[in-house]
Amino acid sequence: MNVSYDFSGQVALVTGASAGMGLAATRAFAGAGAAVVISDIDEAALNTLADELKAAGHQVLPVVCDVADDDQVAALVEQAVAAFGKLDMAYNNAGVQPIPAEMADQSLDDYERVMGINLRGVWSCMRHELAQMRRQGSGAIVNCSSVGGLVGGRALGSYYGSKHGVIGLTKTAAMDYADQGIRINAVCPGAISTPMVARMLEEQKEAMDEFLKLQAIGRLGTTDEVAQAVLWLCSDGASFVTGTTLAVDGCFTAN
Q1: pLDDT at position 208
Q2: Which of 55, 147, 188, 228 has the fewest CB atoms within 10 Å, measured from its CB?
């Protein structure tokens, strides 16, 4: 069951918006009345989503953006503010996984790609979002880390490293801006039913079987369940919550 939020008159930005957790969060923000700025590298999927939201009567601005490119991120935030006048909430969700490999066997190119999107991309998004929110004196940011930011794991060193880094960025920024009316938190999803996890289940079956055994709730999470956590962290209901990491993991990290 979804909890209802009222974000009427507010502006939310979502990266990696065209699929998975970003898509669910986008629909949830729009359903709660927010104007939504959606970004992704998949222009066709982004425009399809924008058409869907507009047809339902929502305010939406699609912006193609590669979060690994700081200039594109700066333009994303500039366009959001130009269109809607402010930026109240941001869900920095865009991320990728590397090709599974022991660290000695991982390529530099793959490492740079993962870190560029998962860690530097979050840093770039926060940098430009925070500059705007600081001018406003208000705002809420949620970064997408992972249970891989809380524990270690085999054959995914750059991914786990990037997600640990997201938590470090989140905690540091939260301390910098706690007295300026801006809250910054992270969600740490476990195994969620997304296209990325579907690929992992197909390509890394044995490893995923072992992973799922530790998800004591006995099922995959849903993207809507992660979206509800994101919306709560952005809402007034979480007004005293900043600098935290919220595991949405079906008890995985309780092991």
Answers
A1: 65
A2: 55
